[in-house]
Structure formats: structure tokens, C-alpha cells
């Protein structure tokens, strides 16, 4: 939390805070490369959603 508060103070005390935020946003984009996520089945082919033979067997019991 201390770092975040110090960051906010630095930006607000700058002569042109909007320009400073744009500069820092550019630095963040350079440092962090976002990779596509495989979580939550994003971008996955969902054609085969039917039950398998073993599930059909269990359901028949």
C-alpha cells in the first residue's frame, strides 16, 4: 500500500499529471506482455459436448 500511495503522490505532484500517467502507461505496456489465457475454456472448440459411453452407462443404472 505504501508504494501505491507514494506513486499517487508522485503523479499528483507532477507539473503535468495526465502526461505523466500516459508515460507510465506506456512503460507498463512495454514491461508486461499479456498472453492469451486458456482459462475458462476461452477460444476452445466446444463441438463435442455430448456424454461419453461411460456416462451413458452410469445414467442407465
Summarize, please.
With 61 residues, the chain is mainly α.
Detail the topology: elements first, then pairings.
Elements: H1 2-13, H2 17-31, H3 53-60
How would you describe this protein?
The chain has 3 helices and no strands. It is mainly alpha-helical and 61 residues long. The termini are far apart. The mean pLDDT is 80.
Low-confidence regions: none
Number of strands: 0
Return the structural class.
mainly alpha
The largest β sheet comes out as: none
Amount of beta strand: under 5%
Shape: rod-shaped
Number of helices: 3
Order of helices and strands: HHH
Give Rg in angstroms: 25 Å
Mean pLDDT: 80
End-to-end gap:
57 Å
Estimated helix fraction: 55-70%
Key structural traits:
61 residues; mainly alpha; 3 helices; 57% helix; 0% strand
Amino acid at each position: 500500500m505504501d508504494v501505491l500511495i507514494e506513486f499517487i503522490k508522485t503523479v499528483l505532484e507532477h507539473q503535468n499529471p495526465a502526461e505523466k500517467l500516459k508515460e507510465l502507461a506506456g512503460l507498463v505496456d512495454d514491461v508486461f506482455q499479456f498472453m492469451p489465457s486458456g482459462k475458462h475454456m476461452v477460444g476452445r472448440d466446444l463441438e463435442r459436448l455430448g456424454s461419453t459411453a461411460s456416462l451413458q452407462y452410469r445414467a442407465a443404472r
